Amino acid sequence: MEAEAYRGYCLESVAAAYDVVLITSEEPSWEVPFFRDCLVVPDPTDQAALSAASRALAERYELAGVFTWTEWYLVPVARLARQLGLPTTAPEAMQACRNKATARNLFARHGVPSAASLSVRNVQEAWAAAERIGYPVVLKPAAHAGSIGVIRVDHHDQVPAAYDFAARPAGVGKQNTSVLVEEYLDGPEVSVECVTYRGETTVVAVTHKTVSAPPFFEELAHSVDASDPLLDVVAPAARAAIGALGITDGVSHVEMRLVDGRLRLVEVNARLAGDMIGHLVRLATGIDLPRAAADIACDHAPDLTPTRSSAAAIHLIYPETSGTLTALRYDGPRPPWLERLSFQRSVGDRLLLPPHGDLFSARIGFLITTGATADEARQRGQEALHALTLHVTPHQAGQGTRTDLLG
Question: To 10 degrees, the CA torsion angle through 170, 176, 181, 187?
């Protein structure tokens, strides 16, 4: 299951320190060993249903804190914490994080360098915004995650198809349905993993990211090095962005790009990073970000003392083309530096790359490697990938290659 593969380490870490009572959207399975009690709320974005479930749990237990690592639930959970009188960043600040247009305005107001951005509601407005900003531009949903619906546009004729692609997933989470047209930030992408407690932010790690070639922005690999010299460079911008949004408590994943040697903000995610990045941070530094998030939710100062100084990398496995998975196996050795290998797909599964699919329909799995440096961890990852047998029988032409949307 994808949730177990990518978030199991979070729940395991929190359960090692706290008694967990869980509100989840479906009947639990792998989560069972890690919680004391559980209630199922089919739609946790339904504030009334979420509040009713929490009241039922509060009658059984003394609740000390509440938090989520799921993007769509950030605002409802912040409101829930406020209702229960528990520590939280203000729901309004969480709403600003979820609405990328609001975040851009706050960055501008507080002098945080970001991308030029305009919110649009139709293709005509998208054309006008692209002309005003200048090509290439990026179109994206105003409230989404995981690079879903994000696409680069290089000229006027590509705008209609790109707008449809960006608008398609925008309703997920029911937070915002607009599309943004933004300046394309041309440079290496990093994320900064931050912990904020009572308004004070500690920058814990820098994650170097590898994304696919344009027009899409599939996240292909990440690496974390405890000794990264970029840490001190990115820290002021990350703190400024968190402050601009009003985040006072919690773990944040701050994305930025280095453009001509200068930092430009992409977005701030007021939650634990996905793609196992928190696990990479722990492998590289010893700092436990899920535990820190739980501590902060219970108004306890988190322990952010590094206990390791090494590196870790994750390689996310995708097919070259959409199709049916016909072979998948790992034939290589299992040295200690191959920390984890996980497949979420099986032979016979259909895989769909953008524009007809996304990371949920295309990604096959991942592998995690460690090393003394990020370069060593990445090189070991490539070595492990070479031992992977992966065959896909393509779908019909025009169904999910990485370039068939824009030609």
Answer: -80
**Domain housing 321:** 310-395
Helix axes 289-297, 2-17, angle to 10 degrees: 60
57 near 37, Cβ under 8 Å?
yes
What SS3 state is found at 281? helix
Would you state the structure tokens that stand for residue 321, as one six-digit string?
A: 């083309």
Is 404 contained in some domain?
A: no
| pLDDT, tens digit, 9 for 90 and up, residues 43-83 | 999 999 999 999 999 999 999 999 999 999 999 999 999 99
Task: Identify whether residues 322 and 380 lie together within a single domain.
Answer: yes
The SS3 of residue 261 is coil
* Alpha-carbon distances, residue 280 vs 9, 207, 287, 376, 378 (angstroms): 11, 9, 10, 14, 12
- Whether residue 129 is contained in a domain is answered as yes
User: Is residue 357 packed enough to be buried (19+ CB in 10 Å), middle (13-18) or exposed (0-12)?
Assistant: middle
Answer whether 0.90 is exceeded by the pTM. yes
DSSP secondary structure letters along 151-178: EEE-SGGGHHHHHHHHHTTTTGGGS---
Q: What is the dihedral of CA 245, 247, 252, 254, to 10 degrees?
A: 20
Query: What distances in angstroms separate CA 295 from CA 17, 73, 113, 243, 290, one per listed residue?
Result: 9, 19, 31, 20, 9
